[in-house]
Amino acid sequence: MKKIIALLLVAVLAVALVSCGGENADVVTMGTNAAFEPFEFIEGDEIVGIDAEIGATIAEKLGKDLKINDMEFESLLGALKTDKVDFVAAGMTANDERRKEVDFSDTYYTATQGIIVAEDSDIKGIDDILDKRVGAITGYTGEVICTETYKIKDMLTFKRGVDAVMELKNGKLDAVVIDLQPAKMFVDKNEGLKVIEDPSFEAEEYAIAIKKGNTELLEKVNEVIAELKETGKLDEIINKYQNK
Ligand code: GLN
Q: What pTM was computed for the model?
């Protein structure tokens, strides 16, 4: 009897190992923070958006299924380093600070920051909020620009854009600084707000982050981005979500 149970256990383990290995071989994992419409957001029980579509195209190129791992923005680069995810597509700005930790693909979107304020506010640009109470999202470039470039002292940081926008609506903040496209989405979805575009904010380039040294994947991702650009598919994807 004992022998039979032992044999059965071995059989079960063998099957488990084989199916587990098989799954890993056929799946590529994308890390993101799905609170950043139009790039990644939750619709029903699915993560959709511009980055999700780019991720799906990368998976297709690799002949694998795509698994999307939704996590805090701040955890994304760590997850890449510890192989919890294979690539990060999260509206992430490729900058020198992050290049110390990861490699970036060619860029696929040029962004800038936006300022969300109450509809009746006189704020016209970044210079008008230097002494105001400003909300930003922890670890986003918007936070870094406010604190390091513009030395804004009265900053409140939040885990998600939506939390900062709620505080702004409740009158607890004078402004929220976040990437322009998500800023526009928040304003569309919430009454009584407007977006200020300030040309003094620098352009930011979004790119896919990949573990340092994984040149094989980096090259594939760059091929996908080049193809998406050449075929006009990238513009199609962007328009589909941006002008929704
Ligand atoms: N582009 C910003 C950054 O890289 C915000 C990205 C995001 O929220 N997903 O920090």
A: 0.89
